[in-house]
Amino acid sequence: MRRLGGGVEDEEKWLAEGIAGIQHNAFFMHRALDANNLREVLKYSALMLSELRTSKLSPQRYYDLYMRAFDQLRQLEIFFKDESRHGLPVVDLYELVQHAGNILPRMYLLCTVGSVYIKSKQAPSKDVLKDLVEMCRGVQHPIRGLFLRSYLAQVSRDKLPEIGSDYEGDANTVMDAVEFVLQNFTEMNKLWVRIQHQGPGTVRERQEKERNELRDLVGKNLHVLGQIEGVDLDMYKETVLPRILEQVVNGKDELAQYYLMECIIQVFPDEYHLQTLETLLAACTQLMPTVDTKIVLTQLMDRLSNYAASSPDVLHEFLQVEAFAKLNNAIGKVIDTQLEMPIVGAMTLFVSLLTFALRVHPDRLDYVDQVLGACVVKLSSVPKLEDARAMKQVVALLSAPLEKYNDIVTALTLSNYPRVMDHLDDGTNKVMAMLIIQSIMKNNSCISTADKVEVLFELIKGLIKDLDGNATEELDEEDFQEEQNSVARLINMLDNEEPEEMIKIIYVVRKHIMTGGTRRLPFTIPPLVFSALRLVRQLESQSGDITGEDVQATPRRIFQILNQTIEVLSSVPRPELALRLYLQCAEAASDCDLEPVAYEFFTQAFILYEEEIADSKAQVTAIHLIVGTLQRINVFGVENRDTLTHKATGYSARLLKKPDQCRAVYACSHLFWVDDDDLDGIKDGERALLCLRRALRIANAAQQMANATRGSSGPVTLFVEILNKYIYFYEKGNPHITPSDIQSLIELINTEMQSDNNNGNTRRTHSDPFFTSTLRYIRFQKQKGGLIGDKYDLIKL
Amino acid sequence: MNYLLGAFKPACNVSITFSDGKNRKQVPMKKENGQTALVPLFQSQETLSGKVCIEPYQGKKVEHNGVKVELLGQIEMYFDRGNFYDFTSLVRELDVPGDIYERKTYPFEFPTVEMPYDTYNGVNVRLRYVLKVTVTRGYSGSIVEYQEFMVRNYAPPPPINNSIKMEVGIEDCLHIEFEYNKSKYHLKDVILGKIYFLLVRIKMKNMDLEIRRRESTGAGANTHVETETLAKFELMDGTPVRGESIPVRLFLAPYDLTPTHRNINNKFSVKYYLNLVLVDEEDRRYFKQQEITLYRLKADTSSV
């Protein structure tokens, strides 16, 4: 009861004293046992047990002491069992031990003899049990009482008249066993709850800790109840559960209620829970407001979910008892009544309920939506969500349907889904959006209607645009890129066979991504453009089907949109990217035989080149892209083409660095000689040669410049490259390329290399093997003979 | 004091034997020197018969003025030392004056003796039965020999035996209701009962049930009262809460109890009480005392 002051050290001392006392008396008890001297045995065992009367120990240390006494009591029991040793009928023994003056030793002895009494079957076990559990009332000290009753529970465990046990039958029914355990439980619970009323409030915290240490003693009774053979559903429903819940509710104690509800849920079979759901849930709403009901309910739902998942056969039971409706109801009530429950609690509950609904009623999307709806209501009732844990729960809530259905499409039909997302903060919203996208990626889901796309983009708008204008927030660049890459991938996933729908999808996507701002557009526009181009190609391949004026999905219209779209990029500004996209579009337009469109795209590209691309390196790249694209396009008429090639060649010659110039110019030669099987292909050998000559001149100039500045003529790479072009065109049959041109070029290279070597520059440059292998190619072609061989024969090496 | 006071060695050995001595039940009795001795047990209306044997020591002759045996029932008050009040006194003359030379045996018999009171050995008073053999002699002092025996009387179960039920309390502090199943118990009985806690505002250490014996001796201004606690039996450990009921089961057998004696020969009374004691954490005691009547049941033949 009252703790004398002092700390752990004192307690250790008291414990040591207690143990010594037990050992001392146990020694004499054993001597008496050996001598079969009953009177002495009783005397010393009572003295030994008197050590348990201490009030000075914490539960943990008291347990230590108790266990030592417990071991001794086992010896005593063996002695009591053997009538030949003490010579007294057990019934007399039962009376004799009650002569002890102190109640605690008396009760321990009585329980010990009682267990022997039952075993002897000289009295109905139920009578003995009833007597014991009743007599134990005398010990009202919480800790001593708990341990005493725990001892009673332990010695009686194997002597309950449960079905199939030796003690069942006649007047002893399983009901008596249940009654006994229930009563012991009731009393223990009362004692346990009472600990908190002991002592002043200052030691409250320690008391709570101590109580927590003792809880398993109480809970053990429920375990026993759960294990008693023969407790059927009816008995559980009519007797066991109501009695336990009565204790739980009336105990009005936070710790106890929480722990015991947990026990109930863990100990009894799922099936019983299902059938008594109403009672159980009703009890949940009656718990103290401070009890963490959510964990209790969560556990219950988890168990039921697992039960449902364990076997499909039981699902009809769930339907029968309307499990979902009941749970939903109860949760609503709990959330309504427990006003101070943090939002995270409510969210956890919703997550569990949702999991339950998904597992048990996968076909009932309306249930899912219902849960989300309730969640929205709850979230709306509080100011902006700031609790990180609550946020996490909401994410879990939203992820659950995704995981379950593996299909975002299903989630898109949930009307409350986006409304829940609205309550997330920006960061979480993004996380959630990423999850959605990942889910789509993982499952390769195809979102095929514009409406769904609309909803989807509404969901992931956290990624699509800056929310609430707080764009100032510093973002991790890597994260940002990853997010936007995901969005880009997502855009690629949107597809519909039907062009009409597809164009709508594109419209929708465009509408959304255009709000994304300069940082996102470079990521999002390219996939949109390619998506549109894919549609264009699809339309092209099924051309002829296009009918009517009001048809949206015509290539021409699409190109219009694209033009507008890409234009945005140039102002972002990402001219290089825009240029590439223009060229892509131009090529596509060319494939569609839309010359003006293609021309327009090229024009845009050129304008960009002229106005926006200032970096010389970027210019080099751009020129090569332009040349490459232009070379492939065959839709242009002569005039348009001339304009464009002229421009391209002009740009090439105006590059800053001589080698770049040279390379761009010889690349331009291809613009005049398109080698394909098409007969009306452009084969303007003269202008191709002109380009090459010009390139040669530039190379020369470069060489001289190198000589002037560095004193050496530098590598001959450019010449070798040009030589290759010569050989290419020669092989392709450009009549303006003669073997002598090639021969003189080879000589030139040789001379250059010689002089290079003479200058003492013995360093072998990389152009050397290049040149060598070029020569080898020529020799090889000579040897091959045939038409080509003949041609090469003309070249003298 | 009651033994031989003679200045000389007694001239003979006097012994008393009961005729059914071998079969009669013997019970232990505490003697004045603290030792216990086994003595025969009788009850009222029984016949005491036996033999007195006088055996002179070798070569001696016992000259006497007569031999008698008396059956005495005496009450002895310790504060009034040496004064015996004989409430029963029966005499048998065994021999006329003469000389005894050798062992001589005298049979005697007290038929259906009225012995209304039980032998009692209390704090301040003693009630005893004794056979007293006196060899009366003139100048050299009489030779006296005593043989104690015990008397226990049995009572039938009382026709009316109500339970004891009572509600007691201290206002706003403690209210209890207790119930003992009977008001009259035989000596090997068991007291069953319950203590209901109706209100508990104090922290309790424990609750005991005591059996107290109240022995009052003398009368009027000279009354001496002595109270002893014979049993202290812990009923409860710790503090109960409101509504709790604590069982009572107290076996009387292990305690050294006697029947209740009321006004024995106007000399003394012995009464028994059950005292319910609650001890709070400050060691304050709250108690309520109730008289119970003890009686000896006929069937009760086991030894104490």
TrEMBL record, chain A:
InterPro entries, A to Z:
ARM-type_fold, Vps35, Vps35_C
Q: Which Gene3D superfamilies match?
A: Vacuolar protein sorting-associated protein 35, helical subcomplex Vps35-C
The record's section on Pfam families has: Vps35 (PF03635)
Q: How does it sit in the membrane?
A: Peripheral membrane protein
Q: Which residues form a coiled coil?
A: none
The domain of life for this entry's organism is Eukaryota
Name the GO terms of the biological process aspect. Answer: intracellular protein transport; retrograde transport, endosome to Golgi
Identify the keywords attached in UniProt to this record, alphabetized: Cytoplasm, Endosome, Golgi apparatus, Membrane, Protein transport, Transport
Q: Which GO terms describe its cellular component?
A: cytosol; endosome membrane; Golgi apparatus; late endosome; retromer, cargo-selective complex
Q: Where in the cell is it found?
A: Cytoplasm; Endosome membrane; Golgi apparatus, trans-Golgi network membrane; Prevacuolar compartment membrane
Entry keyword Membrane: yes
Establish whether keyword Cytoplasm is in the entry: yes
Q: Which family does it belong to?
A: Belongs to the VPS35 family.
- What role does this protein play? Plays a role in vesicular protein sorting.
What the entry lists under PANTHER family is as follows:
VACUOLAR PROTEIN SORTING-ASSOCIATED PROTEIN 35B, VACUOLAR SORTING PROTEIN 35
Q: What is this protein called?
A: Vacuolar protein sorting-associated protein 35
Q: To which species is this protein native? A: Raphanus sativus (Radish)
Q: Which gene encodes it?
A: LOC108842737
UniProtKB/TrEMBL annotation, chain B:
Assigned GO CC terms:
endosome membrane; Golgi apparatus
Q: Which InterPro entries match?
A: Arrestin-like_C (IPR014752), Ig_E-set (IPR014756), Vps26-related (IPR028934)
What membrane topology was assigned to this protein in its record? Peripheral membrane protein
Annotated localization? Cytoplasm; Endosome membrane; Golgi apparatus, trans-Golgi network membrane; Prevacuolar compartment membrane
Q: Which GO terms describe its biological process?
A: intracellular protein transport
Pfam families, per this entry? Vps26
> What keywords were assigned to this record?
Cytoplasm, Endosome, Golgi apparatus, Membrane, Protein transport, Transport
Q: Which SUPFAM superfamilies match?
A: E set domains (SSF81296)
Q: Which family does it belong to?
A: Belongs to the VPS26 family.
Q: What does this protein do?
A: Plays a role in vesicular protein sorting. Component of the membrane-associated retromer complex which is essential in endosome-to-Golgi retrograde transport. The VPS29-VPS26-VPS35 subcomplex may be involved in recycling of specific cargos from endosome to the plasma membrane.
Oligomeric form and interacting partners: Component of the retromer complex which consists of VPS29 (MAG1), VPS26 (VPS26A or VPS26B), VPS35 (VPS35A or VPS35B or VPS35C), VPS5/17 (SNX1 or SNX2A or SNX2B). Component of a retromer subcomplex consisting of VPS29 (MAG1), VPS26 (VPS26A or VPS26B), VPS35 (VPS35A or VPS35B or VPS35C).
Give the protein name, as stated in the record. Vacuolar protein sorting-associated protein 26B
Q: Native species of this protein?
A: Raphanus sativus
Query: Which classification does the entry list for the species?
Result: Eukaryota, Viridiplantae, Streptophyta, Embryophyta, Tracheophyta
User: What gene name is given for the protein in this entry?
Assistant: LOC108842529
